[in-house]
Write a structure and sequence with these properties.
The complex is a heterodimer. Chain A contains three helices and nine strands, in the order ββββαβαβββαβ. By secondary structure, chain A is of the alpha+beta class. Chain A has one domain. In chain A, strands 1, 4, 5, 6, 7, 8 and 9 form a seven-stranded antiparallel β-sheet that branches. Chain A is globular, with a radius of gyration of 15 Å. By secondary structure, chain B is α+β, with helices and mostly antiparallel strands. Chain B has two domains: 32 residues; 108 residues, no CATH class. In chain B, helix 4 packs across helix 6. The longest helix of chain B has 15 residues. Chain B starts with a helix and ends with a helix. The chains are: A alpha+beta, B alpha+beta. The interface between A and B is large, with 39 and 45 residues.
């Protein structure tokens, strides 16, 4: 059980995710290509979190650039009609501090690419998804840390 | 006749009419009609310049710019947004900023208000969060005027 008073760290894998000190909404996009079910975060109350965040698989052109520190209570308390945010443990042997931000819309879990048919190239995105990302982005902006 | 000679002739003629108020007024009226005021390009606001600079930076982002699979900014989307900028007044842009989206579209977002517009190739969508409710529309037909009107409204 992830407690409300805990803080979690959302890894940022590209310097281009931060523009003039502003975090990009894309940092909170559930990826469609892998049908992502939650936004990965590390529980900062778990001793290994800094090692864990560095041990997230570095694939393709990914490299750890920084992280955004977010309070769990603040995430859970986001008031957005039809939408619920929760933070739950997703730990495993390799990543003891691993947790996820889970999002449901009308009780259905939001999975990358499923809510929207509009993730195709050059097609504008669904307004609800943009609003969902915006709420997380506003919280993350306050706790932005570059490594 | 050279420009210098023409200038000399003009000054000579002006010296003849300078003593007659009626002739002077008619000359001024004629010259005013002859020479249309030059259009002066006024400098644009910091917000406008910042957006153009950011857009220019984003256009250099290659596939995978997010450290994953993000697409480069679509050139039609860039053209659409430039059209919005061209038609905008400085006041329209106050408080707004832009971000690229992973699918090649462009997100126009207000810094203080929880509002944003996603510009695609042919259409756009917008959201605004008020009283804990996300309101918005999808699949709206793109035009610079429609986007600018939405920016004012949300």
């Amino acid at each position: 059980m992830v407690k409300n008073k805990e803080n979690v760290a959302r890894a940022i894998f590209s310097p281009r995710m931060i523009v003039d000190g502003e975090i990009q909404p894309e940092a909170f996009c559930l990826r469609a290509a892998i049908s992502e079910e939650y936004l990965s975060v590390m529980r900062m109350s778990v001793a290994s979190w800094q090692d864990d965040i560095r041990n997230i698989p570095q694939r393709k052109n990914r490299r750890l650039f920084g992280f955004a520190e977010m309070n769990v209570r603040e995430i859970r308390n986001i008031q957005l009609k039809r939408v619920k945010y929760d933070v739950r443990e997703c730990d495993n042997e390799k990543l003891l501090s691993h947790a996820g931000i889970f999002i449901t819309v009308d009780g259905e879990r939001l999975i990358g690419g499923q809510l929207l048919k509009t993730i195709s190239s050059g097609i504008e995105q669904d307004f609800l998804l943009l609003a969902i990302q915006r709420e997380l982005m506003d919280i993350a902006q306050k706790g932005l840390r570059e490594l | 006749m050279t420009t210098i000679e023409l200038n000399a002739q003009l000054l000579q003629q002006l010296s003849y009419i300078a003593t007659n108020e009626n002739y002077l007024q008619r000359t001024i009226d004629f010259i005013s009609k002859l020479v249309k005021p030059q259009e002066v390009a006024l400098p644009r606001s910091i917000a406008y310049t910042e957006m153009l600079e950011r857009l220019s930076d984003y256009q250099e982002y290659e596939q995978g710019w997010d450290g994953d699979d993000a697409l480069p900014l679509n050139r039609h989307v860039v053209k659409n947004f430039k059209n919005v900028l061209q038609k905008s007044k400085d006041a329209d842009l106050q408080g707004w900023t832009i971000f690229p989206a992973a699918n090649g579209t462009l997100l126009l977002q207000h810094r203080e208000r929880k509002s944003g517009i996603n510009i695609g190739i042919n259409g756009f969508s917008y959201y605004t969060i008020q009283d804990g409710e996300a309101k918005g529309e999808n699949n709206l037909r793109f035009s610079p005027k429609a986007v600018l009107d939405t920016m004012k409204r949300i």
